[in-house]
Amino acid sequence: MRGKTLHILWATLLFVVLFTAISARAAEQTGISADEAKERLGVAVFVDARTGADWSGSQLIIPDALRGQPGQEATWAADIPKDSEIIVYCA
User: Fold this and answer.
1) What's the number of CA atoms in the CB half-sphere (13 Å) around residue 70?
2) Model confidence over 52-85: pLDDT tens digits?
3) Quick one: DSSP state of residue 59?
4) What stretches of 40-88 show up as alpha helix (H) in DSSP?
5) Are residues 87 and 49 in contact, defined by beta-carbon separation less than 8 angstroms?
6) pTM of this prediction?
7) Does 31-91 carry CATH code 3.40.250.10?
8) Where are the domains of the chain?
9) Pick from 46, 47, 89: nearest CA to 68
C-alpha cells in the first residue's frame, strides 16, 4: 500500500510541475494591438508569417520585417539574436 501511495504522490508531483511549466510558457505568448506593434517598430524584430499569395499579393508589409515560414521557426529564429523581442504576425 505504501509503495502505491508513493507512486501516486510522484505522479501527482510530476503532473503539477509539467502543468506549471506549460502554463508559464503559454503566459509568455501574448497578443498585442496594432498600436502597440507600431510603438515597437525599430526596436523589436518583426517576422511576417504569411505564405504564398497572402504574402506576395499583399500591400501591407512592415518595412524590414523578416519573412518566416510557419513550421520552420527553428530555421529563421537561428538568425535572430537571442535577446531580441520578436513579434510574429500574419495579416
Assistant:
1) 8
2) 778 778 888 888 888 888 888 888 888 898 899 9
3) S
4) 52-56, 73-77
5) no
6) 0.62
7) yes
8) 1-30, 31-91
9) 47
